[in-house]
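Board notes (copied after class):
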Amino acid sequence: MVNVNSWTERTACAHAGLTDGPNGHALPGDGPSWPRDRDVVVKHTTLDVRLDVENQGVAGTATHTVRAFEDGLRSLKLDAIDLRISVVTVDGKKARHVYDGRVLTVQFPAAASRDADLDITVTYEANPRIGLYFIGPDAAYPDKPRQVWSQNQDEDGRFWFPCVDDLGQKHSFELMATVPGTWFALSNGNLVSNRENLDGTRTLHWRQEKPLATYLMTLAAGEFTRIDASREGLPIDYFVEADDDEDGRRTFANTPEMISLFERISGVDYPWDKYSQVVVRDFVFGGMENTSATTMTHNILLDRKATVDYSSDPLISHELAHMWWGDLLTCRHWSHGWLNEGFATYFEMLWDEHHTGIDEYRQGAITNTELYLGERYRRPIVSNVFREPIDLFDWHLYEKGGVVLHMLRELLGEEAFFRALRRYCRENQHRSVMTSDLVDAIRGETGKDLDWFFDQWVFKPGHPKLKVSWAWDETSKTAIVRVKQTQDTKDGTPIFRLPLTIDFSGARGRPKAFPIVVDAEEQSFVFALAEQPVMCRFDPHNAVLKEIEFEKTAGELVHQLRADDDISGRQFAAAELGKKGSPESLGALETAMLRDKFWAVQAAAARALGVIRSEGARDALIRGLAVRNPKARRAVVAALGEFRGDEKAFAAVVQFAASDASWFVEAEAHRAIGKLRTGGSYDALMAGMQRDSFRQVIRSGCIDGFVELRDERGLEPLFEAAAYGAPAQSRHVALGGIGRLGAFFPDRRKELADRLAPFLDDPGYQARIAAANALKAIGEPSAAEALDRMAARELDGRPVRIAREAALALRRGTATEPEVRNLRDEFEKLKAANAALRERLDKLEPRKA
């Protein structure tokens, strides 16, 4: 599963590394969660349902074939929220039952035997608020098609059918769905029959023979066009609206090749009857890996211009990877959810490596590390402290989890790592797993005991923060490298054990590498070398997740930017040269921006020039607008936005706001226009707000531009863009923008909060979340009560958590406050003064070409 905007038997100590409040993961009242006890094994589930599209209802029967663990069991509790129960039978005989609106307790006519199956059938109706979603047109969005689709993860199946909603229970599944006659209904497994009924409806019968967890059962119904991409022996298809046929073919084109790759890596053939992907409107996640039938957001579809520099392959490969990691092997408890999501995130990187090369794989590790480091709290990857399972689906579970697998590959070596991965998959297929199963597979295949590795990276919070320096002793011909771990250990973060490599490059010859182990707070390492190195690299291929300070001379950094064979080293050198800001730095950065073979290094060089903010840096960036790679060009445009009030930078950027080959460069140009804060910025942003684009990225760029402009006039265009009926893909961005921009006008805090409060009850869940975050940003304490009411009525755990965090922040006074804004303004003044100083240096010293 991917959020929209997206990635052992012991459970970590209940509160290790967690702190109450908006800056910690656990919130007041959160406590430990444990796997539930089981009275029965669920062997098979059959749903026979009829959709009432007009009244947004479902009616039918749910039959569970179960077997008791112990003789003498007299009842079974089924999860069932807000259903209308009419009849319950056990083996065809009417059974007594008690229902409290959340749990259905079925009384058995006779004591169950552990040697015999029971068929429990519940006849019911429901108008579910979540779990099963009814999509259709209204006055604000009259062209929206009617569709019905389910989303059971984490524990929402219980809102539309009675079940044992436990991800550790795996069973076969059958679905009979009666839908309007012109519709198609997709579910798990094979299509057994598709018959027309006399009343104008049709009934589709699906059967999934191999076991799956309840949260992976699916129903998606509507008027769809089928695109057939089957390969020999495996049906592969994509279901889209008729008008989306071309975009659907373009978007999903790599799916068959992805399947072949993941089969080779996992050592297990694609394990299900088919692979379908269905695109639906208003989906509440980016994608959902329902077994053999993934549901995808409509935002996944690419128009032709979007493919210039954007791909949906990360989402497609992520959900496909779950067919092995999540569906075939399923985490036993949500606390070990990284075995689902971390693996799927890592397989995104493996697809990039296969499809576009090792540099893109390594860039994936860099990006995922940066996303994890941007998380506002630290927690162990495996943690059982949460209110709702969805609380765990954060940068730790996805991105840090993926980087942990990257580190394992670097630690074990290529061949051993993939051999262990195949063993883990082969031995645990169709089972529920915990982290210990992965540890055991690695030990069994390689002989390596990695308890120490998983203890520090998975069961404890945080990561190493390293301060590194090196020096050359000409007398002894030795290089001395000093390493200090500076991370705060009071929250349970350990002093890490880090096997890694240091290498030195001389004026001639290949780098000389030395393996070391960093495992103390402070250490020194001494290396004998034939000559003084021109470059020292610490962890040269980024094998360890870390934050690092590594002081180097401008000369060494220039050499590294030019000569390092690893993209992470070149990006590091670029960022450090931007801090130094010397004329030597300027020339090296422009050369890298224009000529480096990898776009992310070009982008890093552009960002560094934006940090320097001198006239020479600005002119270099204007020349950099000619770079061909649109991802690099986007970074150049963004960097020009750093030149506050510069009319020459504005004139250069505004040309790209409406004429670039990339939607994303045009969107970035509008952000930069706002950051520049020139006389023409407001009008340019107002013009951009009128443009439709792929996923409304240009309008979103304009919204961000208004925030950067800090012009009070920008609030009204943002409220217009946030209104129900405005383009849906940018409404939540506009609401977020109101919060960020409104924070700069404390005299309007109460008024803006009152205008935002109705959005807490908006039909769109993204809008509700954005409104809650906006209220937190504005910092109006009286809004806490409205957020409390939102948290109480919401059923989706994501808006519940956001509302709780926001209310807590407002009561504690930790939301955005005026003094924070004043500090930001002071920082901008210092940056301007620094730019003036750089200008003087440029005039005093010649710039390198």
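Comment from the instructor: DSSP finds 26 helices and 31 strands in the chain. The CA atoms of residues 627 and 633 lie 6 Å apart.
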